[in-house]
Amino acid sequence: MTETPIRTTLPIGNTVEQLHALADIVIERQRQDHRFPEQAPGQPGAEGAVLLSVLVEQVEEVAMVATTEGDMVLRRELIEVAAVCVKWLEALDRKAQRDRMHEAVK
Fold first, then answer.
1. How far apart are the C-alpha atoms of 80 and 51, rounded to whole Å?
2. N or C: less crowded end of the chain, CB within 10 Å?
3. How far apart, in whole angstroms, are the C-alpha atoms of residue 79 and residue 26?
4. Taking Cα atoms as reference points, which of 87, 81, 79 lies closest to residue 47?
5. Radius of gyration (Cα) for the chain, nearest Å?
């Protein structure tokens, strides 16, 4: 059984804050690929086990700064967590696409 990715459209009425947060996540995703090329799309470091490790590390950083740092530092860490999640979603979508292409060839 194959599942199709959830696709939604942005509802009208998004807040400026939401759009800024999403833009910052996209920028962080691009920064991650530049800073960690071994984890760029298609590289072995972009697979689930590696991404899980990165995500856990990022969540630990959020836990540390949540009570010791200001809101801007916490925001930065949360953006990094969200970007890692997006990266993992991208990897899952690429895998699903490869699987579909492989099935089509059979």
1. 12
2. N
3. 9
4. 87
5. 16
- Would you say 85 and 55 are in contact if contact means Cβ atoms under 8 Å apart? yes
Per-residue pLDDT of the chain in tens (106 residues, 90 and over written 9): 456 556 566 566 678 888 899 999 999 999 998 888 776 666 665 677 888 999 999 999 999 999 999 999 999 999 999 999 998 888 888 888 888 887 888 6
Residues with Cβ within 8 Å of residue 29, at least 6 apart in sequence: 83, 86, 87
Q: Quick check: 81 and 59 in contact, CB under 8 A?
A: yes
For residue 42 the two structure tokens come to 């298609």
CA distances from 7 to 40, 48, 88, 100 (A): 23, 21, 16, 17
Ordered DSSP codes for 7-19 = --PPPTT--HHHH
Tell me how far apart the alpha carbons of residues 9 and 1 are, in angstroms, rounded to a whole number.
25
